[in-house]
Write a structure and sequence with these properties.
This protein is an alpha/beta fold. The chain has a single domain, classed as DHBP synthase, CATH 3.90.870.10. Helix content is about 30%, strand content about 20%. The chain contains seven helices and ten strands. The longest helix is centred in the first third of the chain and has 12 residues. It starts with a strand and ends in a 10-residue tail after the last strand. It comes from Roseivirga echinicomitans. This is Translation factor Sua5. One of its GO terms (molecular function) is double-stranded RNA binding.
Length: about 210
């Protein structure tokens, strides 16, 4: 298996390419895609075998994966009712470089929250992953391709990403150079705001 490298311009994504990538996702494919932070690796969140592939590639457990939603209304399909303060903060910063840890409901596949009843959710400020989610009709898994020992050049240059992953995934989307700072992670599962990781998203004056 060798991956395809597909160039998409975030400012004007070609619908034909989006539709093709969605068809690969529906067939259980694993893709690498740009976000508003670092490049991510993921799949259709409802496909158990594809999720297991992502976990094997990343050497992580399913419960450590987050997923991308199109907007706030889609988020509400997968989490328990948000408190007013949490909703206001999310509405203020999304789409944006934040991951919110929220209490999940029964619509989230068991493989993603078997041992914990929370999920990490993103709405990145990048048209490519959001359009993929919109056309797919459900979230896609997201995990940073960046590891602790990755050099900055590797994690931002799509051609170098392709070289590393061309025999591991089905598609690498070239959406231009990515960033090297991950999202800010905020745990809201107890209706409080706990900063788990301070990344690209600013937290000063947020709450």
């Amino acid at each position: 298996m060798q991956a395809e490298l597909i160039r998409i311009y975030p400012e004007n994504p070609e619908q034909e390419k989006i539709d093709y990538i969605v068809s690969v996702l529906r067939d259980g494919g694993v893709i690498i895609y740009p976000t508003d932070t670092v490049y991510g690796i993921g799949c259709d969140f409802s496909n158990t075998k594809a999720v297991e592939r992502v976990c094997k590639i990343k050497n992580v457990k399913p419960q450590n994966l987050s997923f991308i939603c199109y907007d706030l209304s889609e988020i509400s399909e997968y989490v328990k009712q948000l408190s007013t303060p949490v909703f206001k903060v999310m509405k203020k910063v999304l789409p944006g470089p934040y991951t919110f840890i929220l209490n999940s409901n029964s619509s989230v596949p068991k493989i993603l929250n078997a041992k914990k009843k929370t999920v990490g959710i993103r709405v990145p400020n990048n048209s490519i992953p959001r359009l993929l989610v919109k056309e797919l009709g459900r979230p896609i898994i997201t995990s940073s391709i960046q590891g602790e020992d990755d050099v900055i050049e590797y994690s931002t240059d799509p051609s170098l990403i392709f070289e590393k992953y061309e025999n591991l995934v089905d598609i690498v989307i070239d959406g231009g150079y990515g960033g090297n700072v991950p999202s800010t992670v905020i745990d809201c599962s107890n209706d409080q705001f706990e900063i788990i990781r301070e990344g690209l998203g600013e937290v000063e004056g947020l709450f």
